[in-house]
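Appendix C reproduces, verbatim, an entry submitted by the partner laboratory led by Prof. M.T., so that reviewers can inspect both the input and the predicted structure.
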Amino acid sequence: MLLNKKLQNFIMRIDSKGNSWLSISEFNIQCYCEMQLKFIWQGIKIETEKMMRGSSVHNDKFQQFKEQTEGLEDVDIVSAIRRAIEKQERFAGREVFIISPTFRLRGVMDAIEIGPEGIVIADDKPIDYPYLSVKSQLAAYAVAFKDRYRPPLDIFMMVKNRDRGVIIWEEAFSQDWFEFVIEKINRMHELALGKREFEPTANPKKCFSCSYKNICDKNCQSLNLKSSR
């Protein structure tokens, strides 16, 4: 079992040097609509019943994992990578903290597996289709992991249906994904520092189902957009 190490002050956004830090879960939000990101960064976070349900399921999965791995050796990620290569061993972890000093990213990976064939970073979502926003978040985890540990192993990204446990998307992390994430990292740091304007989604379906639509002056109703549903 991989040893889980979390840092304090996770929600810190601007450090003492004036540098912004990004939560990797926010890549999903940015891809959905940057206005949501703006509200969250202003301290306005609306928790829906669906979100609370998701947190409960994540906690349940973590507790199940702890019970299933009770008594197994705790191993840090550096040791797990080395032993996977040298001894062909396999390791798994849930709710594993990751930080990227270079790109100033922080996050908690739902699940990770390290073995001789490579590293699999997985995310549990209540979906049956791998939306770009979900892929964006996973690719950001991969960038952070690669930056932090420089593993001589391939990294694979995986999305699982949270409730059924089936794989709905899997792909190797590539240079194309790296460049995709770097572009988003640069944009989000500029947003955090006030160097760029937040852009609302152009998709009315996203807007009509958004928890922030009643307080957002960029919502679809104010922009006279109509849903095609």
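The radius of gyration is 18 Å. Additional entries are available on request from the coordinating office.
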